[in-house]
Write a structure and sequence with these properties.
Helix content is 72%, strand content 0%. The chain is mainly alpha-helical. α2 packs antiparallel against α3 (45-57) and α3 packs antiparallel against α4.
Length: 303
């Protein structure tokens, strides 16, 4: 439904109403509309796909999968039903089931660019950056002017330590999709990976402006603000250490504990103090003396 996710563009007046109601987050009305559509066309897959999309938006993912199963019983090669299943498994971070669903979509329609985006994100999450880059390049081959895909590609390149290329792709991404908060979130992550705390903060400011109630974006924005305090940056993990595997970090920690135990204890105390102090400053800067408002969950896995 939305341009940035390639979610199903269900045809007709019913789908237009449902799409509008989802944009307004009027889920009960959208469900009633889809229910009427289902009563009108009980043998067609489209009403089931509409219900699946609504349930996915409501984060009732099991219900969404059940609706797509109904659609696929009527039409096994229904592209939208397979796409919704891929989106649901992506939201669940269930890569084992997401990948076959993506493959089904691409078998039916090899030009569904967002499927390559999902695969790129999966590989990025697993730390398989070369595979991630190949998938995102496929998405960009189909939609070269997608700011979202370019932003993800910039982030993948930053994870591969290709800082100059990441910066160039980020500049290109800023020519498109300037109303999509996810685009700015990826650009913020890419800048943070490049060690550019100032740009990361600017990108997250744009993301939070577009989606102030999104919990993940709010958290990332607060962290970006926090990393702009010099006394906190001193104690954060250096970029080169973040590239190491977990066992390598544990080995470094163990050796440091044996050789420099008093100094390490002092560093830990200073880190905790700087973390709490910078976090308090950020909260005061954003909310003053008030509590943070409640927010909606919608997460993208970060590597």
């Amino acid at each position: 439904m939305s341009n940035y996710t390639n979610e199903p563009d269900l045809s007709g007046l019913r789908s237009e109403r449902i799409d509008r109601l989802l944009q307004w987050e009027r889920y009960d009305e959208a469900l009633r509309e889809a229910g009427e559509w289902l009563r009108e066309a009980p043998e067609e897959p489209e009403p089931y796909n509409a219900l699946a999309t609504i349930y996915m938006s409501m984060e009732e993912l099991d219900q969404s999968l059940e609706m797509t199963a109904q659609a696929l019983r009527m039409e096994p090669d229904n592209e939208d039903a397979w796409s919704i299943r891929a989106f649901v498994y992506y939201d669940q971070h269930n890569w084992e089931l997401m990948q076959p669903a993506v493959e089904e979509v691409l078998r039916i329609n090899p030009y569904r660019a967002h499927m390559y985006y999902l695969m790129g994100n999966m590989y990025n999450t697993k730390g398989k950056f070369q595979e991630a880059a190949e998938q995102v390049k496929e998405a960009l081959r189909i939609l070269p002017s997608s700011g979202l895909y370019l932003a993800l590609y910039s982030y993948v390149l930053a994870n591969m330590n290709q800082k100059q290329a990441s910066q160039e792709v980020a500049m290109e991404a800023l020519q498109y999709d300037l109303e999509q908060p996810q685009t700015f979130m990826y650009l913020g992550w890419a800048a943070e990976r490049r060690g550019d705390a100032k740009t990361a903060k600017q990108m997250m400011e744009q993301a939070i402006r577009l989606a102030p109630n999104n919990e993940q974006i709010r958290t990332e924005y607060m962290e970006a603000l926090q990393k702009n305090y010099w006394f906190y940056r001193i104690f954060t993990l250096p970029l080169f250490l973040r590239k190491l595997k977990r066992w390598q970090l544990l080995l470094i920690w163990f050796v440091s504990w044996l050789l420099f135990r008093p100094l390490l204890i002092v560093m830990i105390i200073l880190y905790i103090v700087s973390h709490l102090l910078s976090k308090a400053f950020v909260h005061l800067q954003v909310y003053g003396w008030h509590r943070a408002p409640k927010s909606r969950k919608k997460t993208i896995k970060k590597r």
